[in-house]
Amino acid sequence: MYLGIMYLITITPLVFVLAKRDVLEKVFDKPDFKIIKNKRFQSLYVLFILATFIGLTFIGFTGNIGKELIGIDGSTIAILVGLFAIFNGIGRPIFGYLHDQLGFKRSATISFVTLIIATLLHYFFSDNYYIYIFSFVIFYLNFGGWLSLTPATTIELFGKKDYSKNFGLMYTGYGFGALFGNLISGVLVESVGLKSVFLLMSFIAIIGLVFLQLRFKNYKKE
To answer: What CA–CA distances, in Å, run from 54 to 14, 47, 63, 179?
Structure first.
C-alpha cells in the first residue's frame, strides 16, 4: 500500500513534466504484429515463458521452502531473500556477457542445464541448508539472466527496427510465465506437497532444453 502511494505521488507530477518534452510527431499508423507469425519469434517466446515460469515460481516459494523444508526462521529467510535478489541482478550482466561471447543457444543451454542440476539437487537433498542456498542462487541468477538473454536475442534475430514493439510483444511471455507458474505450482503444492515443485520445475527445464536444441539447431552466433 505504501509503495503504491509513493508511486502515485512520484509519478503523477512527472507526467506533466515529461509530456512537455514530448515534441516528436505522432504516428497513428495501424500497428503491424506480423512478427508473431515468425517461427523464431514463437520459439523464443516459448522459451521465455518456460524460463520465467521456473524463476517466478521459485521466487514465490522461496520463503515457504526455506521454512517448511529446511526449518529456517523468518528473519533469516528475509536476509536470504535479499541475498538471492542480488544474484537476480547479477544474472543480467553475466548472461549478457555469455550471450555476447557464446551466442544465445549456448547461453540458454547453460541456463537450462544449471536449472536441471539445481532442481534435482534440491529434490534429493531437500532438507540441506547449503543445498537450499546454492539452488536458489542458481534459480535467481537464471531468472535475471533470461531478462538479459531475451531482449538481446530479440535484437539479434529481428534487428533494432521496431525493437520496442517486438520486445513489447515478447515481454508478454513474462506475464504468462507468472500466471501459469503460480497457478500450476500452487495447485500442485496443495495436492501433492511442496517438494513436488522441484520435480515439476526440473521437468519444465528439460522440456526447455530439448525445445531449444530442436528449434535453434541451426542457430549460429553472428
So the answer is: 35, 11, 16, 11
Contact 137, 122 (CB under 8 A): no
* Residue 210, CB-side half-sphere exposure with 13 Å CA sphere: 6
pLDDT tens-digit readout, 147-159:
999 999 999 999 9
* Furthest CA-CA distance within the chain: 60
**Hunting for cell 517438494 — which residue is that?**
195
For 78-99, give the DSSP string: HHHHHHHHHHHHHHHHHHHHHH
CA 194 distance to own-chain centroid: 21
pTM beyond 0.70: the answer is yes
58 contacts 138 by C-beta, under 8 angstroms? no
Give the tens place of pLDDT for each residue, 35-93.
Answer: 999 999 999 999 999 999 999 999 989 999 999 999 999 999 999 999 999 999 999 99
Contact 201, 54 (CB under 8 A): yes
C-alpha to C-alpha distance for 160 and 88, rounded to whole angstroms: 26
For 118, other C-beta atoms within 10 Å of its C-beta total: 25
Distance CA 34, CA 7 (A): 35
C-alpha–C-alpha distance, residues 149 and 104, integer Å: 7
In angstroms, the first-to-last Cα distance of the chain is: 47
**pLDDT per residue as tens digits for the range 105-135:** 999 999 999 999 999 999 999 889 999 999 9
